[in-house]
Amino acid sequence: MGAVTPLGNSVRDTWLRLTQAKSGIGPITLFDASRFPTRIAGEVKGFSFEKWLERNPPLSCAGRSTFFALQAAAEAYKGAMLEPLAVNPNRFGIYFGAGDSGIDFGPFIKTMVASFTKEGAEVVDKGKYLQQASQNMSALRELENQPFMTVTHLTRLFDIRGPVSNCLTACAASSQAIGEAFEWIRRGDADVMMAGGSHSMIYPMGVAGFSLLTALSTRNDDPQKASRPFDKKRDGFVIGEGAGVLILEDLEHARKRKASIHGEVVGYGSTADAYRLTDMDPEGRGAARAMEIAMEKACVGPQNIDYINAHGTSTAVNDSLETLVIKKVMGDYAPKIPVSSTKSMLGHMIAAAGGVEAIICLMAMRDSMIPPTINYEEPDPDCDLDYVPNTARRSNVNLALSNSFGFGGQNICLALRRYDGS
Amino acid sequence: MTEKRRVVITGFGVITPCGNGWEPYWEAALHGRSAIRSADPLKLNCPSFKYAGMLSGFEPKEFIENRKSIKLMSREIQMAVAASRLALKDAKLSPENYDPTRVGVTLGTGIINNDLDEIGVGLRNGLDENGHFSMTKFGQDGVRSLFPLWFLKYLPNMPACHVSVANHLRGPNNTITTSSAASTQAIGEAYRVIERGDADIMLAGGTDSKLNAMGISRFQLLSLLSTREASPEKVYCPFDKKHDGIVLGEGAGILVLESLESAKKRGALIHAELAGYGSSSDFNYDPRDPDDFTGKRVAIRRALEDASLEPADVDVLVANGSGIPQEDIQESLAVHSFYSSSFKKLHVTAVKPVTGNLVYATGSIEAVVAALTTKNGQVPPVTNLESPDPECPLPFVTDKAKSCQVNVAVLNTFGLGGQNASLVFKKC
Question: Is this complex scored with an ipTM above 0.90?
C-alpha cells in the first residue's frame, strides 16, 4: 500500500492524521484563486518532486499527479517486498485510474491571448492559435498531460511487463481499477497487479468547471470545516489531490514468497445509473445494485459488514442519497453499521479517491480503528446513520465496503476482508 | 469461479468519414478508397494542416431524440451515442428484449478537447485593461461567463455515460484511456466482463475527434502528422516507402458483444466470435524507439494464447499501420518475428487511410473490419500501398481485396505511450 494525500505523503502519515481527525484542507496555493468562487482545496504538501527528477530525467515534463503516483507506487512496491525476482515481470500487470494533468495553463493562455478575435461569433482565431501554439507550447508537456502517461512511467520504472490498462471513470476510477485488477488476477492473467489511481484537478479550469456545476463548497473562510459529509450544513465537496496504490497478488503467489498480507479483495460491483447526466437516480438503484453485487461476489450479507467507507462527498444530494442506498441494501442492519466519509479530512481526490479509501479500509482492519467523519455537527434528518462523528472509534473490522460514485452515474463498490490465514 | 463464457459480436455501429453505418465503411475499405479530403471545410486557416478524414452529413438529431441533451454533448459524445443507436439496431436489440441491468458499456476515449470558442468567452473576460490575462479577473468575471455545464462535455467518461443514459443501460460501465490502444482495450475489457458473467451484453468501442485546434496543435508539436503533398485520398500511406506520419480522422465505432448463450437464445445474427485479448506495454522509455518491438509482440502472443491458437492459425492481420515510419517498422519487426513461419498463409492489411487515424477510437472501427473479414471471406487491401518500405517486409494485400476463407483474424493497435493491445476474431 502506498499513498500521497493532503494529510501526508505516506500511508503511515495519512492514517495517523485520519485517526486524529485532522483536516488536510486549506486555501489554494497552486494558483491565484483569490477571486474564484471556491478558493480552498486539499493540496499535497511538502512533496519532493526534486527527488524523482534527480533519479529520472525523463520525468522533467511529467504532470503533478504522475509524481504522486510514482511516490505511492514506490511505497507500495517496497512494502510488498517486490524487489526484482520476487515476481516474474511478465506476470506483473497494472490497472490504474490515473487522471489527466489538465491544460498546461501558462503556455495555453499565452497562445489564447494572442489568438482572440476582436469581434464576431468566433472568439478564437484558429489559424493564429495553431501558429502560436507551435511557438509557445512544449511537445513533451502536451504528451505528459494525457491520462495514459502516468501508467507509461509506472510500467517502465517498476518493470511491469504484464497486462496494462488505465480507466478514467471520474470519481470512481481508482476503485474500478482495483476491481478490474482483482478480476484479472482471479482470471489468471497476472500473479501480481499494481492498482489504484492518481489525480490532481486543483488547476484553474478544474476548479472553474466544478464551481460552475455548483458542486464545490464555498465555505472559503473556514477551509477545515468546509468538507462536512452528512452534516446538515454541507454545501459541496472540496477538491483534493494525490494518489493511492495497492499491490494485489494471487494468494498462492503471496504465500509462496511469504509476503505480509494486509487484507483480501473479495468483491467488486460496477453499474451505471443510466438516469440523467446531471443528477443521480433519486432512487439510487444503480448504487444499491453495485453494493449488492460486491456483497454477492464476497458471499456476505448485511450482517457481515463491519464498516462502510462512504463515497460521502459532502454535496447535498450525494450524502442523503447514499444514506438512502445504504438503508435500502442493509435493511435492519443499516443503523448498526459504522459509515464514515474520510473525504471530510482529505477532500475529494477525484480519480485517486477510491485507491486511498481502499487503503483506509485495510488500515481500519489492521488497527481495529474506524476513522471518523469530521465536521459532523448538525444532524440532517435525511442522513440518519452512524457516521462515526468527529473522533475515530475503536472497533473490530473484518469486512468493509468502499463506495465510489462518479459524475455521470457510475457506481463502484469494493468489498475488502481481513485476511484470516486460510 | 464460474466457467468462462463464449462471447460473440452481434452488432456494429459505425460513424466514419465514409458515412453512417458499417456498410459504407466496409465498402470503402474493400475498394481501398480513402475518405480523406482537403481540410479546408474545418476553416482552421492553417496552411500546414492540409488533409483530414471528416464526417460528412452527420446529423446528431437523427440519432438523439432529446434535443436538450445534445447541448450537453461534445462532438465525441454525439458520435458515440449515434454509433450506439446504430449498433443496437444492427443487433436488433430494443429495450423490450434485454434486461437493462445486464447490459453495460465500455468505451475508449481520451481527453476531449475543449471548444476554444466556448472556453474562450470565459478566458477573454479574464483579460485586464492592458489585454493581459489576469487570474484574479478570470476568477471574478471569467469563470461566471462560461456555460455552466461546459465541464460535463469534456470529462473522458462522458461518452460512456451518455451511451448508458440514451439507451438505459444499467450494467457495468467503464472508460479506458490508453491512447490509440484505448478502444481495442475497451472491447477486450468488455469481453472479459461478459466472460466472467457480470453482463450478458456489452456495448464496446470508442469515439474521438482530434480535428480541432487543440488536438491538431498537439499532433503538430509532437511532429506526428504527415506533411506530404499529394492528392488528399492518396496522402496517407502506412507501410509504403513514402510513409511520413499520421493523417487525422474522426469517428466512433461501437460493437455489440454478447454471450453466445444470449445471442443463441434470441436468435441473433452473429458477425464473428471474439476469442482472444492481450495487452502489454513497451519496455523502453522512448515510445518510438525503433528497436523496441518486444512489447508489441507480447500483446499479439497474449491474445493468441488467450484464444488457444498458434501463429500459424491466423489468416488475417489487421495491422496498426499508423504511417509513422518508426512505428510501422517496429510493427513489421514484431509481426515478422512472430508469424514469419506462416507467411505463406497470412494476409496483412491496414485500413487507417480509409478514414484517417481515429486515435483513441481507431481500434473500434478496425475491429469491425477484422470481424467482417471472417464473416465475408474478403480481406481489404492496404490502402495507398504502392511500393512497401523495404523495412516492412510483410505479406500485404495490395491493389484489391482478396477473397479467401478466413477463420481467424487478429487486430493490432498501439498507443503513443507504449500501450499495445491485440484482439482475436474467429469465424462463427
Answer: yes
